[in-house]
Amino acid sequence: MQPFRNHISKEKAIPKIRHYCAYQERTHQEVKEKLYGFGLRKDDVEEILSGLIEEDYLNEERFACQFAGGKFRLKKWGRVKIMHELKQKGVSSYNLKKALTSIDEDDYAATLQKLAIDKWDSLKGEQYLNRQAKAISYLLQKGYELPLAQKAVKGCREGNDPVND
């Protein structure tokens, strides 16, 4: 078996991985992969990982909340899409729930309403049923829940405040 090309010692890996974690919030899975990429053994990886958690370089709850908040605010993602992405990143169900509840309900409703209205308005030339289907489909792709998406589009059709009625 050939040795790893980027094999570095545990002592050299620790400051590198601290910097990696300090630069941006990371999941446990990402940090493990990085450490294994350094050519470290499982025992060393587990020891370094627990040290990072103790020193608060690595905090899955903090990562999940920041990820959820960022994707919601910047990309206007809904809870379904955020939940799926966090699951893909190996975040625990406890921290996943915590992250989703960190999104403010009023902000969520207002964002959904704005997305629905903007999409509805952008489809002005479409036939009614196509317009409705495309608007709902768009909201589902953004990760919003089907009942909320339907209610938002119904409100656009009727010219009401779609979410807060």
Automatic annotation (TrEMBL):
Q: What PANTHER family does the entry give?
A: REGULATORY PROTEIN RECX FAMILY PROTEIN
Supply the InterPro entries for this chain.
RecX_HTH_2nd (IPR053924), RecX_HTH_3rd (IPR053925), Regulatory_RecX (IPR003783), WH-like_DNA-bd_sf (IPR036388)
For the keyword Cytoplasm, the answer is yes
**What is this protein for, i.e. what is its function?**
Modulates RecA activity.
Q: Does the keyword Cytoplasm apply?
A: yes
Q: Boundaries of each RecX second three-helical domain copy?
A: 59-100
Listed transmembrane segments: none
Q: In this protein, which residues make up the domain named RecX third three-helical?
A: 106-153
HAMAP family noted in UniProt: RecX
Single Gene Ontology BP annotation = regulation of DNA repair
Domain of life, source organism: Bacteria
Q: Where in the cell is it found?
A: Cytoplasm
Signal sequence range: none
Record's protein name: Regulatory protein RecX
The family note in this entry says: Belongs to the RecX family.
Keywords attached to this Swiss-Prot or TrEMBL record, sorted alphabetically, are: Cytoplasm
Q: What Pfam families does this protein's entry cite? A: RecX_HTH2 (PF02631), RecX_HTH3 (PF21981)
Spell out the GO cellular component terms annotated for this protein, sorted alphabetically and separated by semicolons. Answer: cytoplasm
